Structures are given as C-alpha cells and as structure tokens.
Amino acid sequence: MISKGRFGHGLIGYGIPMYQPFCASACRDSIKSATLNCTPAVSGTHGEHSMAITEPKCYATDESFLTTLAYCVSQHCSSTSLWKVERWWKANVAGNADIQPEPKWSYQQTLLRITTPPTANYNKKAPLNTTTLIPNSTWFTNFNADSEFETLEITSENFGLIIVLSGVLVPIVFSLARFLPFPSLWRSKVSALIVDPPLFGSKHSQPVFWNLLILPTRGQAFFIAYLTILNLVLSSVDIWTKQPNSWYESTNEAITTYIANRTGVLSFINLVLAFLYAGRNNFLLWITNWSHLTFIIAHRYIALISTLQAIIHSVLYLVLKVQAGTHTSESKLSYWIWGAAATVAMTILLHTSIHPIRQRCYELFLANHIVLSIIVVIGSYYHILLRFQHQWGYEVWMWAVMAVWGFDHIVRWIRLARHGIRTAQVTILDEDYVRVNVPGVAGSGHAYLYFPTLTWRFWENHPFSVASTLLPTPDQTTPMIDSSEYTDMEKKGGRLQAQLVSGSDSESHRSQSYKGHDASLTFLIRTQTGLTRHLHQRTNLPILIEGNYGSDTDVTQYSTLIAIAGGVGITALLPLIRAHSGRTKLYWGARSSALIRDFEVSLEGIDKDIILGQRMDIALVLENELRDEKGEVCVVCSGPNSMTDEVRTVVTRLVWKKNLKIKLIVEAFSW
C-alpha cells in the first residue's frame, strides 16, 4: 500500500501534524469513502474490480459532503478553538495533496447552510446526497484509530530524540567531570574501579570468546549498557490500543503494528549514532576527552541494536502481511524491496564485522562495510520515500545519517587537500620495519596514509603515528651505533640502558640534535600482510596524508610520566614524552635492533630502558618506578595488545594496593 500526501516539514509532533484535531479528522474519515453526486460511476478496465474514486474537487464542492462534515465537526469539536477548525477545514476537506482546491465554503459558512439538524444516519452503502448524521459508533472507531496512531508516532519520535540526544550529551556531560575539583586519589580509584579495567577478566585489547569479541572497559560498558537498556525500554513501553478501531480488526494486530513501527523508527535513529561514532571527524572527539577507540566500540554495539530493531520491524510486518493475505502483492512493491534490501544489508554487516574477519581480511572488510552501509542508507531512504513520499518526516533521520557521513568525508577531503600529493621516501630498516619520510610536511598525533600507486586498491588507507616532524638536512649525518652490539644483545635477550640527562644537558642535546633540520613527517611502519608489505619494493612513491588526528593529549599536569612502548608503539609516545617537563622515564621493548638504531637521535636526552629481544616485566617495572611516588603520575602505553592489557591490569591493581594517584592513557588504534 502506497500513501500519498503533502510534503511535511520536520517530524511528526514537531512541525508535522497527522490527524489533529482528531475530532475533525474522525468525521472526515467516517465519510471519505462515500459516493457523492460528483463521484465518477466506476474506475478500472479490462475486467478489473471497479471502485468509485472521488476527486479532491468533488469533495471541495459537494454540498452534502460539506454540510454533513461540518455538522459532525460541530458536534464533536466544541472544545476545539474555532481558528484550529478553520485551518484544518481549509487544508483537509479536499484531501491532503500538496496542490488541491480549497472548499467552496469555510467551516462557518457551511454551518450557516444547515437550517435543520439532520436526523437520518449516514449509510455508507447509499449515496450521500443530503446532510446526514454520522453515528457516534462510526465516528468513535475512526477517532480511536486517528488519535492513537498519531499519539504513538509522536511518542516514537520523542523516544528517538531521547536516544540521539543521550548518545550525544552523555559523553559530553561525563567528560566535563574532569573539570570538577575532586581529589586526585579519588579520581584514580574511580578510574581503577569503574572506568579503566575490562568489563571482566584481564583482556580488553585482546579478543576473547574464541577470538570473536573485544570486551569493552567497564566505563565503556556502562555507556553501552545505558544505550542498550534505553533502547530496550523505549522500544516496548507506552504501546497501547483502543477498541473499536477502524484500522485494525484486533488488539493483537494493532499492538504488533505499533511495535513494528516503533522499532523501525528507532532503528533509523540509532543509525545516526552509529555513523556519528564511526567517523574520524566525529565532533564529540573534539568536545569530549573520550577516545576514538571508545566511540568505535560504541559504534559496534549501537549498530547491533539498530540491526536487531530493523529485523524485528521487518519480521513483524512480514507476519502482518501474510496474515492479511496481502504479502504476495505487497512484496512486489518497490518500497518493500528497498526496505528488505536495507535489512538484509544490515544483517550481512553484522555477521561480516566480527573480529576475526576484521583482523585477517581488513581491506575486504572495509570495502564490504562501505558498500553495504551505502545500501543500508539508500535502501532505508527509498523504503520511506516510496511508501510515504515526504509526508511524515521519517526520511529526516536518513538525511541526518547522510549529513553525518558527508561531514566526516568532506573534512577528510579537506585534510587530504591540505597537504596535496607528496613524495614519500621509504627506507628499509629490516625485514619487518620500514621508515617513511614525507619532506615538507609538519604534524603530530597520527595520520591516515594513502599510497595510491602501491596497489590497484588506491582508496586504501591506514592510520600511523607521527614518529617525528624533523629530518636531517643533507649535510648532516646521523650517529650510528655498532650493529654488533645490538646483535649480541638480541641473541642474549639483554637490556640496553641509558641514564637520565638532567635539564640543561637534555636541552643542549636536543638543540644540537635538531639544529639544521627541515620539516618532515616520519612514520615507522611494521610491514604486515596487506597494503604495507608492498613498501619493501619501493624507495619513493606518491603519498596522500590525511591528518592530523588525536594530538591533544595533555600530560603536563602530572609530576611523573612513565611511558611503556612496544615496537613501533614508540611513535605514539614520543610527542607525550617531549611535552612533559617533569620526571620522565621510558621503557621500550623491541625485537628489532634496526628499529632501535633508527630512533637513537630521537631518544637523546630521555631517561630510558630499552629492552631488546625479551619480554618486559611490566609489573616489576611499574612497582619499582612507583615505589616511593607521592605525586600524580601518568602512565602512558602503546604497543601490542597483550602489553597494553597487562599495563592496564597492573596500573589498576597498584592504585588500590598502594593508594597511588595514577592516570592511565592507552594510545591505540582500532577498527
């Protein structure tokens, strides 16, 4: 069934009325199928079932229709303001099309033409050729249908606004808590108890349940639980029906329809949050102190909720149409096909986004994710457009999804255009690592790198931390350390240790190291099995840089900074180490001597322990470093998932065991 009508602006209840005033709409609905003097005899050809179709001009000019309608309105809308009735009369007597004739008489003019109150009851099987009385029972069934449907649709929109505003405001409100003057020990204990640890167990970055799932932290789990419970409650409460009802033959049919409608609307609304949370240019990242990883995890769960709601919506309407015997004809209509395509695409997305697929086939996952997401948005939009046109504003939520997606990608393109096409210089450090230098560009944080000529998949991009924004000029040489020293240490699993350089010495070392350097972005990349494995075959190549992202972490307020890095995780920590002016200690575990040599100059003047070829004892490291610590400490880490999980576990234990004031920052990417 296709519904046509005038273009609505806004949402139902927020700029779009459906049937208000209900008392008047119920009157018109009671006689809208009446045969009038100006109604054509039949409509239909070639032996099809014929039925009379009354044109808008007929409704606007037929005197019996106008007087019968006006008399009914006068009986049932006595408490409604006259101006509201007149407005409704002008807009709805002829129908609800964008362009239609106005009734030839106003409501009050029509009432004046009724000199004698009608006594004969309306008979829908007979022509309406005089002013008649609409029975209360007939009016009441239409009043119930109109009033409950619009009321419930307004409720759905209200609940949707609660969900989307909660999804935006809760992160903002909770992030503002960092400005409240709570004692630092309280903050540390709260973080160690309900924010930083995994939901249960000791794994957050590492997958659990047969490698299928990434557990959120407790803080992330609270937010996800809030959105989940909110959706569960708002999908099911305040759904009711009145009988008798002209739309539905049974209470079960009415309730089933309203649940289907509610879950459909809320599924649309949750898509807005799902697209918002997934964006690199999510404005909440700029307002709050929540990490991109937190929003990515929230994206997964809110997308799951939206998918389940879409499935419920589709299944319930399938059941309703089968029960009504209209499924065969209805399922051939375009709106049904587009809606089914959107639901199927969401279901496939759900199953193809599990961690093993993301981990092993990231490029395929990403392409699949983008294509299916486009099908979801287009299918959802056309599902509404072809079913209701633009009457009721359901498509507004799809416009919001498109706006969020469009904003994110426009900003991405701006960030790309900012640097233009550059030439990257590739230096092979060993079989596992390469250094990529991009002269003439400065930046910090991390950036997404595109290598358009590396493979035929020119659109692929990956995030990498900026290791440095400096590059030695041609007349300088980088001091090297005898490789045999590192080779021997790697064989023995030994440790290289550098002593703390005091303030003035540290600054002199740094100024000497950086003197004469030109602006350049440097990235250290561990070559994997995907796009990056091809870098070993090139010495220079065109590159596009989308950045900079995530460079606003502030560690200056802490008296002590302990940095723990694993492998190329050092690149994410170097800017934080350089920004910190108090006591700073770096522990870096690496398995590549070439990688360590490449960072020798960058690490000059930094108190550090470099652990080569063996597992770092993180518990011992942190206990030794924090044994006599009285001030506020920031522990930052970046590296393999097992390392960051161990740091998370040890820090939360030390906060409670030693009453230490520790802030934990984990620099990590996720997808």
From TrEMBL:
It is found in: Membrane. Residues 263-379 form the Ferric oxidoreductase domain. GO terms for biological process: copper ion import; intracellular iron ion homeostasis; iron ion transport. The chain crosses the membrane at residues 159-180, 221-239, 259-279, 300-320, 335-352, 364-384, 396-414. Coiled coil: none annotated. InterPro entries: FAD-bd_8 (IPR013112), Fe3_Rdtase_TM_dom (IPR013130), Ferric/Cupric_Reductase (IPR051410), FNR_nucleotide-bd (IPR039261). It comes from the Eukaryota. Pfam families: FAD_binding_8 (PF08022), Ferric_reduct (PF01794). One of its GO terms (cellular component) is plasma membrane. The keyword 4Fe-4S does not apply. Keywords: Ion transport, Membrane, Transmembrane, Transmembrane helix, Transport. GO terms for molecular function: ferric-chelate reductase activity. It is a multi-pass membrane protein. Residues 420-551 form the FAD-binding domain. Gene3D superfamilies: Nucleotide-binding domain of ferredoxin-NADP reductase (FNR) module. The keyword Acyltransferase does not apply. This is Ferric reductase-like protein transmembrane component 4.
